[in-house]
């Protein structure tokens, strides 16, 4: 399939965010989420039939127009609900040497299990620099946390974790200079 033909169902795009990962980044909010976390920050993203269908080339054009971007974030909704188009977009993000952050309601370990049935999950993870994993839990909500809403969510350095045979390596703020 040609890049121009690949589409993604999105809830919206934030062209310049400093709260969705390190540095200045474009954030893609995907549409559709199976988790329905109580107190979710983006409940309008839950409906898998909502949002707008957008060619990923349109998103890439927005990325290419901003020389200040240090990265791209996939948020939601649930990004792992649209693995194939996000994988294609992630490949293009990495071709541009940009940092990739993904927010997910799944635990990293659960994604590795799911990847046994759906190998594209592992490939998408292999392109990811920072993974913020775990569901939002309202009773663990904190406004003091960097890049996450509740204290159960983890900041995982995916590249180090995959290099260490899946042993979780936590992200450190050394990446803040991106």
How much of the sequence is in beta strands? 15-25%
Query: Unreliable segments (pLDDT under 50, ≥5 consecutive)?
Result: 174-178
- Order of neighbouring strands in the sheet with most strands: 3-1-2-4-5-6-7
User: How much is the radius of gyration in Å?
Assistant: 15 Å
Specify the oligomeric state: single chain
Mean pLDDT across residues: 94
Largest sheet, in brief, is: 7 strands, mixed
C-alpha end-to-end distance: 33 Å
- What's the tally of helices? 5
Order of helices and strands: EEEHEHEHHEEH
Silhouette: globular
Task: Give the helix proportion (percent range).
Answer: 10-25%
**Alpha-beta classification:** alpha/beta
Give the total of beta strands: 7
Name the descriptors:
178 residues, 5 helices, globular, alpha/beta, disordered C terminus, 25% helix, seven-stranded mixed sheet
Briefly say what this structure is.
This protein is α/β, with parallel strands linked by helices and 178 residues long. Helix content is 25%, strand content 22%.
Write the layout of secondary structure elements.
Elements: E1 7-17, E2 25-30, E3 52-55, H1 56-64, E4 71-75, H2 83-95, E5 99-103, H3 108-115, H4 119-126, E6 130-133, E7 154-157, H5 158-163
Parallel strand pairs: 2-4, 4-5, 5-6
Antiparallel strand pairs: 1-2, 1-3, 6-7
